[in-house]
Design a protein that fits this description.
Strand order of the largest sheet of chain B: 4-5-10-6-7
Distance between the termini of chain B: 44 Å
Number of strands of chain A: 5
Oligomer: heterodimer
Shape of chain A: globular
Radius of gyration of chain A: 15 Å
Helix content of chain A: 25-40%
Helix content of chain B: 25-40%
Number of helices of chain A: 5
Mean pLDDT of chain A: 88
Strand content of chain A: 5-15%
Structural class of chain B: alpha+beta
Shape of chain B: globular
Order of helices and strands of chain A: EEHEEEHHHH
CATH architecture of the largest domain in chain A: Orthogonal Bundle
Chain lengths: ~180, ~280
């Protein structure tokens, strides 16, 4: 089946088997190996990406279901060598140990901040409850998300993936609503 | 892991979807949000020959008012249910229960109707739908029909729908101004409910005028705690009356035994969680 998916700002058209999971399409066909597979049970959240602006577990979406949609992976966050504020905050706060959960943690944290730009600790923990850190390094992850929130206010979230002034015609979100990405 | 091969169709209308199910035969499967089905396919616990995806049918999404009821499209996501102002105002119990479903990523994809049609006894939206006297509108080769929630859930993962029928929408009578709470007990984040209690109460003055209580995972299907409801009506909402009413919660229940809990433990949970649910509803 032929599908067209826009991934990190680039449109890709491919023939895929209906059973192909979105995460496998991203990794094996498009080379987006920043998105990882951590479990076979949909529990771990390591494969989290944004599908039309909302976080999803890409192991639990078929590639054919993403036909016509826009996907953002962790590889699409940095702009011109500048990390996304959430990436930077994970770096600054040492919010990783082995790093395997980090792509999913970052993508889910950005989603959380879109709905709640100033989450307290409990809200962060609930917001990332679908993401497991096998090193149990949650303390610094929570700290990083709150740090990122302080740097991104107002208007954090998936909108921050769009940097003001950068013209990406494929998107459905307004570049003018950016608060964080261009700092 | 990778699912076994299947054919995939994504119809754009309900009629097309029903026709696709008829054409594909008995090994076809409907996919809604896919958050329960795709893990099952990946583990190869099921291998349907055809998936009929309801995701491209616009008329199945959204919440609208219809007189004294809300009508929730079956493909409305949990995320949209949580944030819908009509549901917050007229069916707060559904909003509170939906808040507890799985995790944010799953709530972005998973759907209200998918949960209802999947009929997992540990699913969090069945007991609220039962407590609120919801009605399911289903479409099949013979046309459309309405099934009350009380007649909809037959057994574990089994409903009154035939394999060629799909759930179109759920009609929920307005419970405007009712207090509501969903009290869920599980051991770790994003786990299924071991037991959960859906409680919603209407008060007049300081007195409970009406009460509806549904139990999650206390049988192969959601059940109403009628004894609790009857014990609450006409009473002042004091800690004593709530505690006394909650003692009726496990009456007539027949919960499953699994690695998490035996019958006695689940029945004790039902009583304790019912008390908490009603107290939290009254405080909310």
């Amino acid at each position: 089946m032929r599908i067209t998916v826009t991934v990190d700002g680039t449109s890709y058209t491919d023939d895929v088997e209906p059973r192909t999971l979105l995460v496998h399409h991203l990794r094996e066909r498009l080379g987006k190996v920043g998105t990882v597979v951590g479990c076979d049970t949909s529990n771990c959240g390591a494969c989290t990406v944004h599908l039309d602006g909302h976080s999803v577990k890409s192991c639990s979406v078929l590639a054919v279901q993403a036909d016509g949609c826009e996907v953002t992976t962790v590889e699409g966050l940095a702009r011109d060598g500048t990390l996304h504020p959430v990436q930077q905050a994970f770096h600054d706060n040492h919010a990783l140990q082995c790093g395997f959960c980090t792509p999913g943690m970052i993508m889910q944290s950005i989603d959380l901040l879109a709905d709640n730009p100033d989450p307290d600790e409990q809200a962060v923990r609930e917001g990332i409850e679908g993401n497991l850190c096998r090193c149990t390094g949650y303390q610094n992850i929570v700290r990083a998300v709150q740090d990122a929130a302080h740097h991104m206010r107002p208007g954090a979230g998936p909108e921050a993936e769009r940097v003001a002034g950068v013209d990406q015609a494929t998107g459905s979100r307004a570049a003018s609503s950016v608060g964080g990405g261009g700092e | 892991m990778i699912p076994a091969p299947f054919d995939y169709v994504a119809p754009s209308t309900v009629d097309e979807a029903v026709r696709a199910l008829v054409d594909a035969g008995e090994d076809a499967k409907v996919i809604a949000g896919g958050q329960s089905l795709l893990p099952v396919l990946r583990m190869r616990l099921a291998a349907p020959t055809t998936l009929v995806d309801l995701g491209r049918i616009a008329e199945l999404r959204g919440v609208r008012e219809d007189g004294d009821a809300l009508v929730i499209g079956s493909m409305t996501t949990h995320y949209d249910v949580q944030r819908d102002p009509l549901i917050g105002e007229h069916a707060a119990l559904l909003a509170r229960a939906t808040d507890t479903v799985a995790d944010p990523q799953v709530r972005h994809r998973g759907t209200f109707g998918g949960s209802i049609a999947h009929a997992d006894p540990a699913g969090d939206l069945l007991a609220p739908a039962l407590a609120l006297d919801a009605e399911m509108l289903v479409a099949g080769p013979a046309g459309r029909r309405t099934v009350p929630a009380a007649d909809f859930f037959d057994d574990f993962f089994t409903t009154a729908m035939s394999p060629e029928e799909i759930l179109v929408e759920v009609r929920v009578p307005k419970h405007t101004g009712w207090h509501a709470h969903y009290e869920k007990f599980n051991r770790v984040a994003q786990a299924w409910s071991m037991v959960a209690v859906a409680a919603t109460v209407r008060t007049e003055g300081g007195t409970i005028a009406e009460a509806r209580v549904g139990l999650t995972n206390m049988a192969s299907v959601p059940v109403r705690a009628r004894g609790v409801e009857q014990a609450l009506v006409g009473q002042a909402a004091t800690p004593e009356t709530i505690r006394a009413a909650a003692e009726h919660a496990a009456e007539g229940t027949n919960p499953t035994v699994d690695g998490n809990a035996d019958v006695e433990y689940r029945q004790q949970l039902a009583r304790v969680l019912t008390g908490r649910a009603i107290s939290a509803a009254m405080a909310g």
